[in-house]
Design brief:
11 strands; 5-stranded antiparallel beta sheet; 4-stranded mixed beta sheet; alpha+beta; single chain
Length: 547
C-alpha cells in the first residue's frame, strides 16, 4: 500500500507541474527536492497549457486528478470573497461542468442496473448528459406515464478511484499528525476519517434518495424550499431517478434580476433554510454549492429554492447543537465571557484554560469586526481570525463540525453573491432565539419526556432485577466498584478514616445516651449509668479533638 500511495503522490505532483502549477508543488514542501527530477521528465518538456490563465490551468488539473480534488475546487469556488476573482470564476465551472463520460456507457450502466433494455424503462432518454459533476452525471428522460425525470448515474469505477485517493489523504494526515507542529491539535487523521464516511456515502445513490425523501418531509408545505420527488421503483445503488425541476440556476443572478426576483428576500431565505435545517430539523443539506441550487420564480416576489444532489447531509449531536446555538447567540450579543466559558465547558479547549484570557483573545478578534457595518462582516473572515486564536490556546479541531463549518461558509458565500448587502447575523439571530426559547419551554420538556417514556418504562421493568442482583452481590461479599483515578489511594484512606470516626462517634453516642437513660429512669445502683455516660462523653471529646 505504501508503494501505491507514493506512486499516487508522484502522479499528483506530475499533473500539477504539467499544468504549469509549479508554485503549488513548491508550496507542498514534501517533494521540493524532486522538483528538478520532475522538470527533467520528458512529458514535462512541452507544456502547452503553460500559456493559459492560471485559473484554467488549476481547474483542468483538478479535473484530471479526480473527484476528491474536484470537490475541493467546488468548495473553494463558493467563496469568491476569499479567493482571487480569476480562480473563483474558473473553479465555479467544477460545480456542474466537469467533462462527462460517454452517453453510451451511461446507457449500458443503467441497463445493467435494471436488467432490461432502456426502452422498457423510459419512454425517452437523452444520451447527452445535461450536467456532470465529480462523482455522477445527469441525463434527462421521460417515464412511460409521461413524467419528466432526471436520471443520475455514477461514474464508472468511482469506488476504486476514491479509495486510492483516500489512501493518499490518510498517509498525508498521518505524516501531518506526526511531524507538523499543529498536527495533534488539528486532528487531521480524524478529519480525514470523517471525510471518508461522507464521500463513501455519496457512492450509494439509494442513500441519497433516502436523504432526499427525508428532506422533502421536513419541508413539506414550506414556502422556502422545494425538494423533487424520488421515484423509488427506478432507484438502484448506482442509478437514481427524480422529478425534473425547471428553475433558474442560483448562479444566474442576471436572469433572476431580469425576472424581477426579490433578491434580498431570496438571500435571507437561504440563511433561514440553513439554520432551520441545522437547529429545528437537525438534518442539513451539506453540499449547497451553486450547481445544486435552483430558484422557482412563479411568484418573483416570493422566490422559492429548489435543491438537488443530496449525497452529503449532516446531523449534530444534541450537545453540539446546544453549544453551537449558544456560541452563535453569544457572538451576536458580544458576550465574549460567555463564548470563552462555552468553549471550555464543551471541551473544545483544554479545561485548564483561563476564562479571562480566552475572553480577552476573542474580544480582540471580534471587536474590530463588529465595529464595521453588519453587512460588511464576513463570517469566513471571522473564522480565519478565530482559527489563529485557537492555535494560541491549543484548541483542538472538532471533526464532527467540519461539515457544518464548510456548509455555513458555502451558504454565506452564496448569499453574498446574490445580495452583497446580506446581513447574516440579523437573519440568523431571531431563528436561534426562537429555537432556544422553544427548546427550554415547558411543552418541549414534556414532549421530550413523552418521547422517552417507552425507554424509561423498559428501564423501570429491568430495575428490580438489577437491584436484586446488586443486593445479592453485596450480601455475598462479591460486589466490587472499580474506580481508576490518580488520587484513588488518598480517597480510600480518607474514606477509611471517615468511616472509623463515624463508627467511633456512633459507639460513643450510644454509651452516652445509654448512661443518661439509666440514670434518668432511677435504676439502682446508679453508678453503671454514670460510668457509661462519662465514658461516652470522654470518647466523643477525644474524637472531636482528633478532628
Amino acid at each position: 500500500m505504501k508503494l501505491r500511495v507514493a506512486w499516487r503522490m508522484l502522479q499528483i505532483q506530475r499533473v500539477l507541474v504539467r499544468h504549469g502549477l509549479d508554485d503549488f508543488v513548491a508550496a507542498t514542501h514534501l517533494y521540493r527536492p524532486l522538483m528538478l527530477i520532475l522538470y527533467l521528465l520528458p512529458w514535462n518538456w512541452f507544456r502547452p497549457l503553460r500559456d493559459q490563465p492560471r485559473g484554467v490551468r488549476l481547474r483542468l488539473a483538478l479535473e484530471e486528478l479526480g473527484p476528491i480534488f474536484v470537490k475541493f475546487g467546488q468548495a473553494l469556488s463558493t467563496r469568491p470573497d476569499l479567493l482571487p476573482a480569476d480562480l473563483a470564476t474558473e473553479l465555479a465551472k467544477l460545480q456542474d461542468q466537469v467533462p462527462p463520460f460517454a452517453g453510451a456507457e451511461a446507457r449500458a450502466i443503467i441497463e445493467r442496473a435494471y436488467g432490461r433494455p432502456l426502452s422498457e424503462v423510459f419512454a425517452t432518454f437523452e444520451e447527452d448528459a445535461f450536467a456532470a459533476a465529480s462523482i455522477a452525471q445527469v441525463h434527462g428522460a421521460t417515464l412511460h406515464g409521461g413524467k419528466d425525470v432526471v436520471v443520475k448515474v455514477l461514474r464508472p469505477d468511482m469506488a476504486l478511484v476514491i479509495g486510492r485517493d483516500l489512501e493518499v489523504l490518510h498517509a498525508l494526515a498521518g505524516l501531518a499528525e506526526r511531524y507538523w507542529i499543529d498536527g495533534r491539535r488539528l486532528r487531521p487523521i480524524e478529519v480525514v476519517r470523517e471525510y471518508q464516511k461522507t464521500i463513501l456515502d455519496e457512492l450509494d445513490l439509494m442513500r441519497e434518495a433516502a436523504n432526499a425523501a427525508q428532506l422533502k418531509r421536513n419541508f413539506a408545505g414550506s414556502t422556502l424550499l422545494y425538494v423533487p420527488e424520488v421515484y423509488w421503483d427506478y432507484c438502484r445503488a448506482n442509478v437514481m431517478v427524480m422529478e425534473r425541476i425547471h428553475g433558474v440556476p442560483i448562479s444566474d443572478v442576471q436572469r433572476l434580476r431580469s425576472l424581477k426576483t426579490n433578491i434580498a428576500r431570496l438571500a435571507e431565505n437561504g440563511v433561514e433554510i440553513f439554520f432551520t435545517q441545522v437547529f429545528r430539523h437537525n438534518f442539513f443539506h451539506a453540499d449547497m454549492h451553486p450547481g445544486n441550487i435552483f430558484v422557482l420564480v412563479d411568484d418573483p416576489e416570493k422566490p422559492r429554492y429548489a435543491a438537488v444532489d443530496f449525497g452529503i447531509v449532516g446531523t449534530l449531536s444534541p450537545r453540539d447543537q446546544y453549544y453551537l446555538a449558544e456560541n452563535f447567540l453569544a457572538f451576536f450579543d458580544r458576550d465574549y465571557h460567555r463564548v470563552a466559558k462555552l468553549h471550555i465547558d464543551s471541551g473544545w479547549v483544554p479545561p485548564e484554560t483561563r476564562v479571562d484570557e480566552l475572553e480577552s483573545a476573542v474580544r480582540t478578534v471580534c471587536e474590530p469586526i463588529f465595529n464595521k457595518p453588519l453587512k460588511d462582516i464576513s463570517f469566513g473572515q471571522v473564522l480565519v481570525r478565530l482559527f489563529e486564536t485557537a492555535r494560541r490556546f491549543n484548541m483542538e479541531i472538532q471533526p464532527q463540525l467540519v461539515l457544518l463549518e464548510k456548509t455555513l461558509l458555502n451558504i454565506e458565500g452564496l448569499g453574498r453573491q446574490l445580495y452583497p448587502e446580506l446581513d447574516l447575523w440579523k437573519t440568523a439571530h431571531p431563528i436561534l432565539r426562537d429555537w432556544m426559547r422553544e427548546r427550554t419551554s415547558g411543552r418541549a420538556i414534556v414532549e421530550r419526556l413523552r418521547s422517552n417514556l417507552p425507554e424509561l418504562a423498559e428501564a423501570a421493568k429491568t430495575l428490580p432485577q438489577l437491584l436484586q442482583g446488586v443486593i445479592q452481590q453485596v450480601a455475598d461479599g462479591r460486589f466490587r466498584l472499580q474506580v481508576d483515578s490518580p488520587g484513588i489511594e488518598d480517597l480510600k484512606r480518607t474514606v477509611r478514616e471517615t468511616n472509623a470516626r463515624r463508627d467511633a462517634i456512633t459507639i460513643a453516642g450510644v454509651l452516652l445516651l445509654g448512661g443518661i437513660v439509666w440514670v434518668a429512669v432511677g435504676h439502682n445502683p446508679p453508678w453503671p449509668g454514670w460510668v457509661l455516660a462519662v465514658t461516652g462523653a470522654i470518647w466523643v471529646f477525644g474524637v472531636w479533638r482528633r478532628d
